[in-house]
Amino acid sequence: MPDDKELAFTPAWKLREMVVARKVSPVELAELYLRRIEALDPKLHSYLTVMADEALASARAAESRLGRDKGGSLGPLYGVPISIKDLELTRGVRTTLGSYAYRDRVPDTDSIVVERVRRSGAVILGKTNTPEFGLYASTENKLGEPCRNPWDASRTAGGSSGGAGAALAAGLCPIAVGSDGGGSIRIPCCFNGVVGIKPTQGRVPRYGGYGVPAPNQFAQSGPMANTVRDVAILLQVLSGFDARDPGSLRAPAPDVLTGLDKGV
Predict the structure, then answer these.
(1) pTM given for the model
(2) How many Å apart are CA 55 and CA 124, to the nearest integer?
């Protein structure tokens, strides 16, 4: 078994394999990342809301199901902790959009993206920091301290998915959902040394993805991680038509994992 730091930076795809093989439990993984968040995030401010109780409950449910399922029907991120940028609606969990005006808002529905993350079997650790309405290239707002770069805490983590980028680089989650209109995934990936992609417009439905139950005409929710394979897996999870977003692409999403091992 790897030590805690090595486990924290293990790729999400490998963590899923370890969970299914019963080499590590979803509860152990959730507890590991929650400990790291508690220890490191007071300096980094990568999370706006930590969902400790919800994460542990989800991890326990995942652990219980493992005893009844050999892995064939388990989702591609089963038991893997994940963070969600705080522009996505999360049912029963504070969704601020990085705005002081929405500091106490708790929606009663999930965005399509969060629905799909839950369906993949992932365990949501919390909501990552974003500038107000995701409109800036650094992650600062009136809800608290600016998000800091784990490589040098005197510097910015970029934006607007700066919280996700910082959390990944610091080992506070193994995989993350960000969003990008004009660089909001790409800038934090560059600043923090992680991997991400802005999907083709319409590839990922965005109903509920800007904090409101409406389609988005410009930005795209998208995957961020420490490895290309993890980004590809999460993009596959998030992609596909949904009638609630008339701008989402009706053509079947391509299998982005095909040829990955061959470098094509």
Answers:
(1) 0.96
(2) 6
Catalytic residue positions? 85, 160, 184
Q: At what angle do helices 52-66 and 26-44 cross, to 10 degrees?
A: 160
CA Rg value for the chain: 17
Averaged pLDDT in 10-residue chunks for the chain of 264 residues:
92 97 97 98 98 98 85 88 98 97 96 97 98 96 98 98 98 98 97 97 88 76 97 98 92 89 61
* Cα 258 from Cα 41, distance rounded (Å): 36
The Cα–Cα gap between 203 and 181 comes to 14
- CA distance linking residue 230 with residue 169, whole number of Å: 14
Cβ distance 220 to 204 under 8 Å?
A: yes
Closest to 98 (Cα-Cα) out of 144, 35, 61: 144
